[in-house]
Target: Class I SAM-dependent methyltransferase
Amino acid sequence: MGNGDSRTETLRSVRVTDDGIFVRAQQDRVVDVLFDGRRIGSFWLERDTREAGEERLYPWPDALRRFLDGTTTLSLVDHVDDLELFSEEVALGEGDEERIRVEDANGNPLGLDKSLRLMRLFESRSPEHVKPLLDSMEAVLTALEQSGVEPFIAYGTLLGAVRDGELIGHDSDADLGYVSAHDHPADVILESFRLQRTLVEQGFAVTRYSGIAFKVLVEESDGARRGLDVFGGFMRDGMLYLMGEVGHPFRPEWVRPRSQVTLEGRSFPAPAAPEHLLEAMYGPTWQVPDPAYKFETPRSTVRRLNGWFRGTRVGREQVWDKFYSRGPQAVGKDGPSAFVRWVRESEPDMRTAVDVGCGVGRDATWLARGDVNAWGLDFVGRAFRKQARRVARQNLPARFLWANLSELRSVLVTGALLAREPGPRIVLARHVADATDETGRAHLLRLARMVAAHDGRLYVQVQTERTPEGGERGERGVKPLDVDAFLAQVRELGGRVLERHDLVVDDGDEVPAGSADPTICRLVITWSP
Model:
């Protein structure tokens, strides 16, 4: 690898393959990855890698993989010290003589942001390219001010202004914020919706993604359409809550009266003491550049912000929205699953079936064709929208309902509604428990207990081991589940297991495991005496 003595203090070896970058590191440092001298992304040598024998592996981010076919001079540079730790010509993919170019369709350079998305980063933009963004920021800040709040630049935009007076090179967007004069979440929400209406009346397009956070869409002078995030916040009981990531002890005099900071040669409003807000956002080391920064918001803050403001969007993964936006042809084969056929054979007397995580609704529709009162639940409404219209035209006994297992209020309302349906009531959850977190699994069990009490049951199918194909829906969020831990949750909520079936997938069919290691587990759970 050809490192000098000073470099070996950080890295002992580097090896680059199609899987990623293998390193042996002496200490956890943030390094930039350069292709032919241009930064592509950054990672921490320990935090962002995983064990791989005696080495640690930084796997290539998914967004980058389609570009990795050709040759490049790959360098690793200490981001803070700007010290080159490694540089070597490497061949990836077919390894032809074409140089690897990470660019968009128009030849604009792309880089990985902190969320591992490929974006046009500020470090690759000229002052002429940045000017429309700054103009848009000024326009939206003025509009917010005229609407009755005291806005300021926030998050990475504020960080760049305070630290260097410039936009952060590895950033790709701009953030704005404000702290409401109200101290009750309901009043702050009402104010946020009033702001939205006022901005729309001024000609701005606005999209909302929580009770006090929205995006203002601005058409810039170069014709590009940009979204500026506006994060609302408020003070209560000595705490500042600012949408996104902040729930931190704060003083009112750190917010108002606002100060001014310089960004790219222009003056922008900031909180009275911006350094205190930056510490609340990025911790006490906010002055040290970290292009691979990850927010580690305390669970208590996440729960408060979720409960107050995120509501229906809690836990919603964009991957499912994008997946179902491609249409039913992306979902796979037609017809019911082997799982629902098994449930139907096991429950010949069922009157009501509740398919949790129904997706496009094929299993629920199949049950309805067999004269079962079928309900399909999913938290991506576009998934079942077309099927809901189809069954309505055919007058089938199937209905579809939005529900979110990560939102307790949604679970309780849905459970109360479905508990009134005729019994026996059977709940189906095929690759749901293994596609959510511990909270989602607990809420699944609560929902099933409400619906299937007395004479009903819960039928579950989960993946227990990763298969060579990635599992039935592995690339879309399903991960192998620790069944014993899940069964402990079942017992905690008063349930008991009537049946357990360990299976393998053979040519697309689910068959008893026999001597093979099982990859699928089916459970039948009851809360009846």
